[in-house]
Amino acid sequence: MSTESIAWPTSGTATRRPFVEQLHEWVSTVDHKRLGVLYILYALAFLLVGGVEATILRIQLIRPLNHFVSPQVFNRMFTMHGTTMIFFVAMPVLFGFANYLVPLMIGARDMAFPRLNAFSFWMTAFGGLLLYYSFIGGDGLYGAGNAPDVGWFAYAPLTSKTFSRGHSTDFWTLSLLVSGFGSIGTAINIITTVVCMRCKGMTLGKMPLLVWLNLVMAVLVVLAVSPLTAAQIMLLVDRYLGGHFFDTQAGGSAVMWMHFFWVFGHPEVYVLVIPAFGFASEIIPVFSRKAIFGYPVMVAATVCIAFIGMSVWAHHMFTVGMSSNANTFFVLSTMAIAVPTGIKIFNWLATMWGGQIHFKTPMLFCTAFLFQFLIAGLTGIMLGSAPFDWQLGNSYFVIAHFHYVIVGGILFTLFGAFYYWFPKISGRMYNERLGKLHFWLFTIGFHLTFDFMHIPGILGMPRRIYTYEPGRGWDIWNLIVTIGVFFQAAGVLVFLGNLLWSYFRGVLAGSDPWDAWTLEWSTTSPPPVYNFAKIPEVASRRPLWDLKHPEDPDWHYE
Amino acid sequence: MYTRPFSAIMIFCGLALAACAEPAHPYVSPTSIFAPVSTPAQSIFDLSVFVLQVTAAIFIVVFSLLTYAVVKFRKKATTDGREPAQVYGSTQLELAWTVIPVLIVVVLFLAAARVIASIQNAPRPSSAIQVTVIGHQFWWEFRYPSLKVVSANELHIPVSDPAHPTPTFLTLLSADTDHSFWVPRLAGKTDLIPNHPNSMWVDPHETGLYLGQCAQYCGTQHALMLLRVYVDSREDFDRWIQQQSQPARITSTVSPGQRLFETTACVNCHTIAGTAAKGTYGPDLTHLMSRQTIGSGAAKNNIGNLIAWIYKPDRFKPGCKMPSMGLTVQQSAVVAAYLVTLR
Amino acid sequence: MSTPALATPETDIGWNLPERGPVGMYCLIAAEAAIFTIFVVAYIFYIGKSATGPQPKDVLSVPIFFTICLLSSSLTIHFALKLLRSGKVLSFALWWLLTIVLGAAFLAGTASEWRHLIYDEGLTIQTNLFGTTYYSLVGLHAFHVTVGLLALATVLIFTFLGDVNKQHAERVEVLSMYWHFVDVVWVVVFFVVYIVGR
Predict the structure, then answer these.
(1) Where would you tag: which of A320, A438, B179, B206 has the fewest CB atoms within 10 A of its CB?
(2) pLDDT at A5
(3) Reported pTM
């Protein structure tokens, strides 16, 4: 009770502080909760921008030989859509949730390095702004804009000075270089926080799974973002110092860029999906009213995924002409990663089994995640069989697969996380009916778009084409795919409207509206700036379960 | 509640997938990966059917379990507020769902490894036709080194009788950025990467026209770098080779079109064998009229399109590497009149 | 409700978690190691692939002296830290200064080697694959040495201002970890460039 009785320090008067003062507080904050919110709001803004880019792409592709946008604009749109969504939506929003939740869940007052935390956020933010400045900067004022148009993985030698004469590639390189430093900073912070600042009694085996998964994610970031940074430095050396790293005319290797990029690129997708697993691992138990099934194996499986995930990268390069031995090795490692991933699905299923499932909005999204992630994993197995990938690779089947993971898997659990923790962050409940409306609109749209998107891939439609010939059998599927976009857009608008409305008018949530079990629910909603009046001491993985069920605490079973 | 619309969608998808899987059904798509006519495509198809069967089985099992859980363990109105039994784990269960996936993975891996070897390590018979494919932004160059033929955009290869195979082996090079050669009914795609020669082979056993296109983003006009592969009978192929290896028919007088062609810097980029035009940046035009399209599939090859193309290539392929040569429409027509004589 | 005050299963256990500084620095070292690994891989991949221009065995001479300088600086920084921990700030300052001097000597050696390579041998970053990979790898390392020297110099300035004493030993140790890392990277670079690559 002591946290609730401490009054929030105010300036003493009933009037609000001046806007400039509030703005200054936000801009200069080092508080993990505020930085978390800043990351999340930043990501939401870019989600809208990336969504508009996707909509432009889909309208252009709604029918063959369409003239909605020129090829130059289209190529910029798909490059910017991918780059934005990965680096300025997915990573920031996940870092935002990690920032907000990890210290609370381990009973700490803040992250290990609060100033580094702020620095990392602003580096990421600046990177995004730099990327979008490309639309008007450089030669943009004289031409039609200079945004990157080399694809989000920027293959050499398309990015060399010869083939990419303006500054579009430089904007891509520099903005990601800058935000990469931010990512590494946040990852160092997360690792140090988890290793050094857990409250008493919380051994590594008693941390909430979300904390474990963010720790693994952070280790992956530390190891995987640096190769991208290195490759980008090499690209800059090529473009501006006359280097030959990827200069094929001088004996350089275009394939080496691919290796370096995908050594980053594949672990990057695990960086994105592992925190999503973390959300699911917190939400599913609470709404099934059961402890997570097989906690130790969930941790071990995640570590396996991260470890194996660093050895699968060249499955993005099956068509590049590697030797049959190399191709075979990467098939093996790619298939191997299906095992720990499948284990996790079974563990979530077993958590629900025998439970009492409350299908509130967070659980709806996490349940859909389970079905969709299953499908995404299976199409991944198809792509992992190299010969099958020789047909399916670089086609719309691949686009369907990875959007199935990123939207159907990651974004769905993210929506679940938004609804689950919104009461904690804002102090108010969201509107449940609008939440369900969002879920249905978005799910229908998601399936319309991404289920049917597999088909043009099977029928031979490559990716990154601004138009296509009629008579290939692709037309109807592209139409359906585009229609789904509008349902998704409607769902997202309902979502944003719900959050906004509920922030101002929602019912007060109290500290524990979900009857949950981890430490963040033991403090007020929103938490005070110091998180806990007294640092807690725990004895099991579910400290609040122990409190609520003193006759049957978890530490009898762990 | 949740499951019904989802099931309906999945059933629909299954039907759609089945429709695509119809082998050699020309009305579904000329570029379907499930309509193979050549051994590499066939091997891949056989593997993919196996993989689909395995993944479908996994899907059905797990989907059913998930659906059952979602329906059976819903919170009912009659529950009395007590928490259900807390189950923390089960070693046997976790072992089972580790071992079984490992076995499935091993099986899938071995199946894939076999096909990789059979396609990538296939020996080249002496009867094989050899073609060098050079990818350009945004067109295809085809060279038959031993047959001394140079062509562009539309590839002719002989049909291969499975009893006495005459496969075509392609060496894949690039003059600029990365490209990828993808004709789904013939084989999986293989990339064309500068300074990194690749090779692939096809042995189509049915004559016909097979479509494809570049499958690795190579710049502005990646989308219109189309492929047309004509699988000819042996006689037709030999006749085509014969015809292609001739220089352009020289007439006694130089037509105004030819003069314009040779004085407007067209010769800097294009070759017309037997004339002064010896450029190699753009496609070889010696037998331009033997092709059905221009601009690597951007438009049909007829006099009207030729005139429009020469006048402003950008209209068909904005961002393509052929600049507008600053000719008037009339001049373009004159040049086109010359080009239509290049059979 | 804020503190789960229950009878915990065992008696009061000690709760000692690692210090934040070293853990953070280890993470930074891991990230930097990953960057260097990529540059080393590129260097190794391109060994022998330069079509034209000077080749390593023609123009590189093994920089024994400057390597000894850099590696000794790891020793001097270790002594400096021991002295700081026992409170001997002046001795610490001297050994710290010696570390900086040795590090600066290494940089001077790199600079003179580069001057020789550029002006006498005509090898620049543009010349060929060897030039590109050599200057990038050695340059990346030299950049990290420079940053390290700036940090060391900052500590030296604070020491001369009288602001550094025994209780800062842990923070100084974190910095020395970075310095040791820079030395280890040089061992790898030295081996790859001057032994294997030649």
Answers:
(1) B206
(2) 45
(3) 0.94
- pLDDT-derived band at C5, boundaries 50, 70, 90: very low
Q: What is the pLDDT of residue B16?
A: 53
What phi and psi, each to the nearest 5 degrees, are found at residue A48?
-65, -45
If residue B170 lies in a helix (H) or strand (E), which one and from where to where? strand B168-174
Check CB contact under 8 Å for B33 and A392.
Answer: yes
Amino acid at C155: V
Residues B229 and B333 in one domain: no
pLDDT at C13: 66
**Whole-angstrom Cα distance, residue A439 to residue A491?**
7
Q: State the Cα–Cα distance between residues C75 and C82, nearest whole angstrom.
A: 11
CB contact under 8 A, C24 and A537: no
Alpha carbons A212 and A194: distance in angstroms, whole number: 8
DSSP labels, B228-269: EEEEE-HHHHHHHHHHHTSPPPPPSS--HHHHHHHHTTGGGT
What are the backbone angles phi and psi of residue A508, rounded to the nearest 5°?
-65, 140
pLDDT at B152 (0 to 100): 96
Tokens of residue A388, six digits: 């099958």
Is the pLDDT at B5 greater than 60, yes or no? no
Q: What is the rounded radius of gyration, in angstroms, for the C-alpha atoms of chain A? A: 24
DSSP code string of A376-396: HHHHHHHHHSHHHHHHHTTBH
What does the pLDDT read at residue C12?
62
Which residues lie across from B299 on neighbouring strands?
A: B294
Q: Is B231 part of a structural domain of the chain?
A: yes
For residue range C108-119, what is the model confidence (pLDDT) as tens digits? 999 999 999 999
Chain B residues within an 8 Å CB radius of A75: 217, 220
Looking at residue B284, which CATH number applies to its domain? 2.60.40.420
Give pLDDT < 70 ranges for chain A.
Answer: 1-15, 138-145
Report pLDDT digits (tens) over A180-192.
999 999 999 999 9
What span, in angstroms and rounded, lies between the C-alpha atoms of A433 and B279?
68
Whether chain B has a CB inside 8 Å of the CB on A466: the answer is yes
Question: All domains of chain C, ordered by start, with CATH?
Answer: 20-196 (1.20.120.80)
A436 inside 8 A of chain B by CB: no
Whether B25 shows a pLDDT value over 80: the answer reads no
Give the domains, in start order, of chain A with CATH numbers. Answer: 19-556 (1.20.210.10)
Q: Which DSSP category does A144 fall into?
A: T
Averaged confidence pLDDT in chain B: 91
Inspect the structure and tell me whether chains A and C have 3 or more CB pairs less than 8 Å apart.
Answer: yes
Q: How far apart are the C-alpha atoms of C81 and C94, rounded to whole Å?
A: 11
The total number of structural domains in chain B stands at 3
Chain A neighbours (≥3 Cβ pairs under 8 A) are B, C
Of B25-39, B44-58, B259-273, the poorest mean pLDDT is in B25-39
